[in-house]
Amino acid sequence: MLDIKDLRVKIEDKEILKGINLSVRAGEVHAIMGPNGSGKSTLASALAGRNYFDITHGKILYEGKDLTELTPEDRARAGIFLGFQYPVEIPGVSMVNFLRAAINSKREYRGEKPLPAGDFLKLMREKKKVVEINSDLTNRSVNEGFSGGEKKKNEIFQMALLEPKLAILDETDSGLDIDALRIVANGVNKLRSPENATIVITHYQRLLDYIVPDFVHVLYKGRIVKSGDKKLAKELEEHGYDWIKQEVDLKA
Amino acid sequence: MTDQEKILNEVTDNDYKFGFHSKIETETIPKGLNEDVIRLISAKKEEPGWMTESRLKAFRHWQTMTMPDWAHLQIPDIDYQDIIYYAAPKKEAKYQSLDEVDPELIDTFNRLGIPLEEQKQLAGVAVDAVMDSVSVKTTFQDTLAELGIIFCSFSEAVKNHPDLVQKYMGSVVPYTDNFFAALNSAVFSDGSFCYIPKGIRCPMELSTYFRINTANTGQFERTLIIAEDDTYVSYLEGCTAPMRDENQLHAAIVEIVAMENAEVKYSTVQNWYPGDKAGKGGIYNFVTKRGICKGDNSKISWTQVETGSAITWKYPSCILKGHNSVGEFYSVAVTNNYQQADTGTKMIHIGKNTRSTIISKGISAGRSQNSYRGLVRVLKGAEYARNFSQCDSLLLGDKCGAHTFPYLEVDNRTAIVEHEATTSKIGEDQIFYCNQRGIDTENAISLIVNGYAKEVLNKLPMEFAVEAQKLLAITLEGSVG
Ligand SMILES: Nc1ncnc2c1ncn2[C@@H]1O[C@H](COP(=O)(O)OP(=O)(O)OP(=O)(O)O)[C@@H](O)[C@H]1O
Ligand SMILES: [Mg+2]
What's the pLDDT at B1? Predict the structure, then answer.
């Protein structure tokens, strides 16, 4: 589904991603871990199409197509969803209007008619149950005045509504209380199917108890320096990153 | 160019939809302004002597005045002798039926979305259509007359209701008020007149649609609304003009009188030609709008969506004379490219327990300048007067300017006056967030801008709120940031 080949990304002359290789097949869950500032969010942004940086080298293939040729909105319509590490507030724009615009633009892209208002509201109600989100939140403006945890839950709610093929969740677990963590994980698990794939970026092995990954990758200084299965996450939890850093820095 | 600028340019690059010019046979008088021209205008309109005299008095006063320069505007010199002060579609006459109207003219209004045939119109909206200096057609007049409501062109009112015109014209905006008011009082062309008799709720929206068509012509319309005791009327004004390289002058006066328990809602969707992307051409929109809440418990509410004009100088105001009277001003002003707007309101509290609300939402893009200027004045006798003002500015890009000039003059200690102001910017991250959910940049801006202006748009009559939303989106098309 997703093939990243030797991806290099520069922000203002500084190389942030230094050759990323990653393959994600349908049905898989990949976890990406790594110290602060190692480039995890940058990788997520590159997939979503944010372009305050330059892709200087490499390829991103999504369902066989060159992803970099698609605008961010077309990537979204083609099924890529990014759960933001820091969701932004959009004052004055109601969640309902926002999500309706989102769903209908996706439908239009697929050549479908806009969803009738009644059906849309029904769908909202259904998905709200999945993430146990407070009704009141969806009556407010997008993320405006939401608490940190509420914003994260709202990302999962949107994911549930938009039913992406490839979801990238950037530290969606940070700032969640135990119950919210379980709810978020449930949301992700419910979406899991042989047709979909998920990339979870996280600092905590705890999340991976709920969302069991097929692969765990460690990103350090712009490279994937280690890959393994869920046991790798356990090791990191116990020993931290020092041993990996040492391995890498020694080689260099 | 940064990314932000690129998107900005895309969204603000849009063409004016109403810029066509109609080939209508027009009768114009020669350029220039003097007493003879004023007599000529008055004669063309077959006006009574008192009207001619009133025009001349205003003209003589105007000659002693100079253009105001206190606004945050750069107004190029205007040569008042280089303007045509009267233009009318030929075959003018008084159209009794639509058959007499030039088909091209009917077509023009059709293209503007304002059909003159009553059966084709929005149910519940009566329209007075004004082209250049004359009113072309007023619809639903008969239906309204059954209730005693007078809705006609100003010229007709001068002829058929001289007592009302003489009593109220200039009573809210005297010709001495300001430079443009004096000019208008001297040369005004046409506009609408509306009288709601005691105890009547006007059953339909009244609206005037102004269209400038002829080149080198100024438009000086005059509107007068009188709402007697216990009445209600909602009035809407719209306007457009062809695209031209030269600037055209529009200097209007609107006066509203609200008696006891009367409520007047006046909404404007101003979409005069704003000039091209390089700032060439466009309408100079210098307008004096004022209403007086004369009777107790009366209410005047101004709602404006200002998207057009090269330069806008406009402060719809309320004189709150009656006790417990209420004044409201809801405004969205959008400027793009090289447009300049200096707009706001004046709320003059005279009566006891008078209340006013000001909600102003400025949106600037391109290299435009957008200023809010508002005065809240509470006189000595205005016990327990209250005002709440909120002035927000939204910036798209970093080459535009937003300014706020609030003035407070409070002479009564029981008065409560509150003012809030914010400035924000549409962030690239907000737009990206929308993009990531599949919403393209244009729709994202339109969502964000409409969300921002929602409080004001909600005040418009339903049919027009939708139009206004689209207009906001179109005005900003090509301008994200
Ligand atoms: N817009 C930017 N301008 C300059 N530097 C940037 C920008 N965005 C990211 N960086 C830098 O790129 C590097 C990688 O940042 P990134 O956000 O991808 O890290 P991360 O792995 O997600 O970290 P965290 O775990 O703290 O979220 C950091 O050194 C960061 O300072
Ligand atoms: Mg990050």
Answer: 40
Provide the ipTM: 0.95
Asked if B163 contacts B157 with a C-beta cutoff of 8 angstroms, the reply is: no
Distance, C-alpha B109 to centroid of its chain: 19
Query: Best mutation site among A7, A8, A11 for ligand 1, i.e. most ligand atoms within 8 A of its Cβ?
Result: A11
Measured between beta carbons, the chain B residues lying within 8 angstroms of A105 are 438-440, 443
- Residues of chain B with Cβ-Cβ distance to A141 below 8 Å are 451
pLDDT bucket at B378, cuts 50 / 70 / 90: very high
pLDDT of residue B248: 82
How far is B427 from B363, CA to CA, in rounded Å? 14
Query: For the segment B1-49, what is each residue's pLDDT rounded down to a tens digit?
Result: 445 445 444 444 556 666 666 676 777 888 899 999 999 999 988 999 9
Q: Cβ–Cβ of A91/B437 closer than 8 Å?
A: no
Tokens of A10: 């520069």
The domains located in chain A, with CATH, are 2-251 (3.40.50.300)
Is the Cβ atom of A86 under 6 angstroms away from ligand 1?
no
Q: For A24-46, how does the pLDDT look when each residue is reduced to its tens digit (9 = 90+)?
A: 999 999 999 999 999 999 999 99
CA distance B64 to chain A (A): 48
Give dist(CA B119, CA B97) in Å, integer: 14
User: How many beta-carbon pairs below 8 A join chains A and B?
Assistant: 82
Looking at residue B122, its pLDDT comes to: 52
For residues A148 and A177, give the distance between their C-alpha atoms in angstroms, rounded to a whole number: 10
pLDDT higher for B266 or B211? B266
**What are the residue ranges in chain A where pLDDT is below 70?**
252
State the distance between the two ends of chain B, measured CA to CA, in whole angstroms: 12
Q: Which amino acid does the sequence have at B264?
A: V
Are B443 and A101 in contact (CB < 8 Å)? Answer: yes
Averaged over B250-259, what is the pLDDT?
95
The number of C-alpha atoms within 13 Å of B343 and in the hemisphere containing its C-beta is 38
B187 by DSSP, 3-state: which?
helix
Query: Residue B471: CA atoms inside 13 Å, Cβ hemisphere, count?
Result: 27
Ligand 1 site, residue A45, Cβ cutoff 6 A: no
Positions of E strands within B220-281: 222-227, 232-240, 247-250, 253-258, 263-270
Q: Is residue A13 in contact with ligand 1, taking CB distance under 6 Å? A: no
A37 CA distance to ligand 1 middle (Å): 5
Please name the member of B428, B437, B454 whose beta carbon is closest to the beta carbon of A92: B454
- Reading the block at residue B289, the tokens are 């709008």
